[in-house]
User: Fold Thioredoxin domain containing 16 from Canis lupus familiaris.
Amino acid sequence: MMSSNFNIFRVGISFVIMCIFYKSAVDSLSELSPQKYFSTLQPGKASLAYFCQADSPRTSIFLEELNEAVTPLQDYGISVAKVNCVKEETSRYCGKEKDLMKAYLFRGNILLREFPTDVLFDVNAIVAHVLFALLFNEVKYITTLEDLQNIENALKGKANIAFAYVRAIGTPEHRAVMEAAFVYGTTYQFVLTTETALLESIGNEDIENAHLYFFHCKQVLDLTLQCRRTLMEQPLTTLNIHQFIKTMEAPLLGVPVEFLVLDDIDSLISHVESNVHVEEIQEDEDEDTKSPNMDVQDDEVAETVYRDRKRPLPLELTVELTEETFNTTVVASDSIVLFYAGWQAVSMAFLQSYIDLAIKLKGTSTMLLTRVNCADWSDLCTKQNVTEFPVVKMYKEGKNPVSYAGMLGTEDLLKFIQLSRISCPVNITSVQEAEEYLSGELYKDLISYSSVSVLGLFSPNMTTAKEDFTEAGNYLKGYVITGIYSEEDVLILSDKYAATLPALLLSRHKEGKIESIPLANSHAQDIIQIITNALLETFPEITVENLPIYLRLQKPLLILFSDGSINPQYKKAILMLVKEKHLDSLTPCWLNLKNTPVGRGILQSYFDTMPPLPLLVVVNLHSGGQVFAFPSDQPITEQNLLLWLKKLEAGLENHITILPAQEWKPPLPAYDFLSMMDAAASQHPTRKDPECTKETDVQENDKKQHEDKSAIIKEPIETLRIKHWNRSNWFKEGEKSFRHDNKEL
Assistant:
């Protein structure tokens, strides 16, 4: 969802101004000495401090404006005070004349920001700057049209945007926008700019006045469409913005209202009669779709498909196959075939991703994208050993079809198709070619799909080891690039990379590193496990797609939540602990709330309100469900993090919450059709009809014959199902474990 819920600030945010002792019109401000002020600082509490000497008369105007700001700031739970400096004070804030013209914003004992006092020129500027500093997650300041488009694209289908232009920071209009963001920042993404060029680029040339736009992005499901924009016509005041946003929350009128003028009664009767038939059809359709919980399906996938049922899909980008056209099509060209069922929600949801894939590959791929609706061609699907939906298979001439076992998404399927273009493993024939392979030059167009390239090194006489590696490479086709080198001069490579034959060379292209792993006495399954573990990043960014893979490790998660890219110093500290083996019992990772907005909901479930970011937590999903939070008032350094982890291990830290081990059930109970049929049958006893005896006997005989045939084909189908599970086990194991835990991060 949106950024932090700043209700946390309502409970005691201290807004402190350090200034000279001045009696004029400031009786409402509490007074503190420097020692008293610093002793009252608390972790997580915010304060603004202003220092100056007692004999300076230049702050009287500022104090008058500050006094005016006391009441509005108290409305947001922010206290205001002044602290008197004395001449003997030699601290950084009381000592130098240049420092006396600045206001300092603290959270706890950590300095967050400095403000020149001329920036806080009146009550509006004070309130605006204080809220702007605190709502750093709620309000994004941008300067270019590209920034605005990026935010708009990121929030399509997720949330709406309130975009404001003000002439300058600290104006009354800026204050009004900040006050609105304080109230609505958890519901809408607020975006602010002072750039006239940006305002003009969206079609508004009135740069002399402030403006507010509401971007209706939540209902936009097609990423190629622009969010509809509504301009607020009234001046930017707090009350007007509140009324405008409340209006935007009302249901949208789908079509313009048209008024019909009829000249006489006959025209009216004719018009009504011509529309009666249309209304009757509409009523019939409404009756068919009505239910007590019409908008709530019994699972989220079905609900999504139901809500998107009117979204047109360009199905013409894929070839629909039938029993008559299947063999001729897949023989004539390399093909990707989607087997789906038109009545199944997951199939229809994945069909949208499949069409998105066709759009990406249009005009660039030699692979033909096709589809088979098994609801229409069940015999064809049975012949192709399709026992579950949806299933994607790759057909290439002279080879057995390969089933796709990855995530049901556009990007993962695209990666599978692109990596399947080459042999696995690739046969490398020279040392130079091997070096090009390891550097990424040999298949540089595929590096974006596989960050690791694997090269097996073998002596020519290591037949069994080569066969095991080849089997592993075939198994991993479409998921990683593998190559094999077994020429007479293989020792050149083994000596260079300190590898004892047989061995694997893992080339990590992002890090520019090559490491060797010995393969002595390793069978195909061992090699597969080694490679799959090597594909896992040391400090990955967690997403919805890769989370099940890391949950498969069955370790507590050490997650750094960040609203954007992480601080390089934080990453360096965590990677150093990984290198020193201090995090072997944890899975260190980070989550970017901009890329994975569901992280906001996760944090709110941990803390009730959105905490300030960045934030480091340990989540013990697999045993106990405890959640521990790294102290927010401490910087994330190697030393602080190691000390905190030792306290965790010793049981000296208290958890902030325990995740419930509740089952994930659909919001509606499933229909028990058999019970419904039995109940109906009990109300209508079946009559015995002697004339139907022979027909019944025939039906019974047919039934027995049918059961015999079913028994014949049952075993092969179950065997195929088991083989399919084994083929895709390592990709699906984490996802099943994730569902089995029945917990949310």
About this structure: Confidence is low (pLDDT under 50) at residues 1-27, 287-295, 685-744. The radius of gyration is 33 Å. The first strand starts at residue 13 and ends at 19. Residues 298 and 556 are 31 Å apart (CA to CA).
